């Protein structure tokens, strides 16, 4: 007996251990191809001393450390690197404000080539930052699926015509690049402010700060960060789900990510992964959609995004069981607004954001139901009477109009054409008139009128 108990206990312990060590793991998705363009300052000022050596030589040494890090990353993630250098072709004076060249184009095995190229360069010229940024647009291949990043390494500000901040903003708005990185080598506060407007600025007053900038940049450009989106109900609880979400770059408007909001096995919003390099506008594709702007993702932590999205359910219920009525559409507008936000099939449940809506149901004649209230988690059913069927036969081709009668108000709902003499229509219950004239007649006095009534679920045949 003791032996059996021990066996059972052993099995239970094993099962518990298995359950603890085999929990579902949300894997970080593979990042898209990343292209990094280095813009390296080789102007005359880079000949000055810094950290016990020539500034250019020390910056090159630190750049090699950055390339070493990227080479390790390249073994795990898709990554291409290119090099543009400015200030290295023409001496100062005179000032050559077009002294900028793409020295190494993008490719899979360029890091060694970049090292060799930097070893062959001597600083001598001016600092055309805006011009170099502008030329960088053509350095990146035409590939909408890649993440394009610029890392500018410089010890000074713009010395030629042009505004680097405007050029950077234009590149980001066009979707050419994400927000650039700038490493400022031993730059004073005033000059640093003039560079920071271009993107993510790192002050490298010494080699240690340069290395810290490298560490941060490599981490940000080579990994995605965990994000959880809470779709909040009317009580502020994250219970809403099963709706598409799209993340757009705030600057360019480009779609960066799309996800279907999902609850995980624990009933919590599932974790997704986003690039920290963009600031986002989130569109939650509810009806109507809800938005959240200015979302910044912090690297190295679980980012929580709360979005109020309380929903209820609308059902437009057309009575009866005629299959033809399933084609009836319902146009939905927010109460008092003219813009259509959704078109719904009859007899289909549709989630809507809590609020009031005006419905235009495409029956014949159209049915209008205004100020329909949608409440959190509740079903709001709108009943529509079952249509009746009317068969109208003209004995000869005729021009005519079908009018719906509501008291003394006559509303045109259908036009008859001489091209056809037989009509089968689904009409809402009510009173109608057909006003017509045979095509062969050329006198208005030969006009005729026929009145009839339609009842739900019944068929009427009218021979005219």
Write the topology of this structure:
Blueprint: H1 2-21, E1 34-41, E2 49-50, E3 53-54, H2 55-74, E4 79-86, E5 100-104, H3 111-119, H4 129-136, E6 147-154, H5 164-173, E7 181-185, H6 189-196, E8 200-204, H7 207-222, E9 224-232, E10 244-249, E11 255-260, E12 271-275, E13 279-284, E14 290-296, E15 303-308, E16 311-318, E17 329-334, E18 340-345, E19 350-353, E20 355-361, E21 367-374, E22 379-384, E23 388-393, E24 398-406, E25 409-416, E26 422-427, E27 430-438, E28 448-454, E29 459-463
Parallel strand pairs: 1-4, 1-6, 6-7, 7-8, 9-15, 16-22, 23-29
Antiparallel strand pairs: 2-3, 4-5, 9-12, 10-11, 10-13, 13-14, 16-19, 17-18, 17-20, 20-21, 23-26, 24-25, 24-27, 27-28
Largest sheet: 6 strands, mixed
The CATH topology of the largest domain comes to Rossmann fold
Count of folded domains: 4
Identify the CATH homologous superfamily of the largest domain: von Willebrand factor, type A domain
Q: Which parts are unreliable, with pLDDT below 50 for 5 consecutive residues or more?
A: 1-26
- Determine the fraction of residues in helical runs and give it as a percent range: 10-25%
- From the 3D coordinates, which CATH architecture of the largest domain would you assign? 3-Layer(aba) Sandwich
Radius of gyration: 35 Å
Q: Hey, roughly how much beta strand do the residues contain?
A: 35-45%
The outline comes out as: elongated
Distance between the termini: 95 Å
């Amino acid at each position: 007996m003791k032996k059996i108990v021990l066996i059972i206990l052993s099995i239970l312990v094993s099962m518990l251990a298995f359950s603890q060590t085999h929990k579902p793991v949300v894997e970080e998705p593979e990042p898209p191809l990343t292209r990094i363009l280095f813009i390296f300052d080789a102007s005359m000022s880079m000949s000055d001393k810094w950290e016990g050596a020539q500034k250019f030589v020390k910056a090159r040494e630190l750049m090699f450390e950055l390339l070493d890090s990227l080479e390790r990353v390249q073994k795990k993630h898709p990554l291409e690197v290119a090099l543009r250098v400015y200030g290295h072709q023409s001496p100062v004076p005179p000032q050559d404000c077009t002294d900028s060249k793409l020295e190494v184009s993008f490719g899979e095995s360029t890091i060694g080539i970049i090292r060799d190229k930097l070893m062959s360069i001597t600083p001598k010229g001016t600092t055309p930052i805006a011009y170099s940024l502008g030329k960088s647009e053509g350095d990146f291949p035409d590939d909408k699926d890649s993440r394009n990043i610029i890392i500018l390494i410089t010890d000074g500000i713009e010395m030629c015509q042009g505004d680097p901040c405007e050029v950077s903003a234009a590149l980001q708005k066009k979707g050419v690049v994400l927000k650039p990185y700038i490493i400022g080598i031993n730059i004073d506060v005033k000059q640093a402010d003039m560079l920071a407007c271009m993107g993510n600025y790192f002050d490298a007053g010494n080699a240690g700060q340069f290395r810290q900038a490298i560490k941060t940049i490599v981490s940000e450009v080579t990994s995605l960060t965990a994000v959880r989106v809470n779709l909040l109900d009317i009580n502020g609880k994250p219970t809403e789900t099963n709706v598409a979400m799209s993340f757009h770059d705030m600057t360019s408007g480009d779609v960066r990510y799309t996800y279907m909001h999902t609850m995980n096995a624990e009933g919590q919003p599932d974790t997704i992964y986003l690039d920290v390099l963009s600031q986002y506008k989130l569109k939650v594709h509810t009806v109507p959609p809800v938005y959240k702007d200015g979302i910044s993702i912090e690297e190295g932590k679980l980012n929580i995004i709360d979005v109020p999205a309380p929903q209820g359910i609308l059902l437009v219920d057309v009575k009866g069981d005629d299959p033809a009525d399933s084609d009836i559409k319902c146009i939905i507008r927010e109460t008092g607004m003219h813009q259509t936000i959704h078109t719904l099939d009859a007899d289909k449940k549709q989630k809507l954001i809590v609020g009031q809506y005006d419905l235009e149901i495409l029956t014949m004649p159209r049915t209008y139901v205004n100020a329909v209230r949608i409440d959190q988690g509740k079903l709001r059913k709108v009943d529509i009477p079952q249509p009746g069927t009317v068969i109208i036969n003209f004995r000869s081709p005729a021009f005519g109009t079908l009018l719906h009668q509501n008291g003394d108000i006559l509303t045109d709902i259908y036009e008859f054409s001489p091209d056809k003499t037989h009509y089968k229509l689904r009409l809402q219950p009510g009173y109608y008139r057909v006003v017509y004239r045979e095509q062969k007649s050329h006198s208005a006095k030969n006009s005729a009128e026929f009145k009839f009534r339609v009842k739900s679920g019944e068929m009427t045949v009218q021979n005219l």
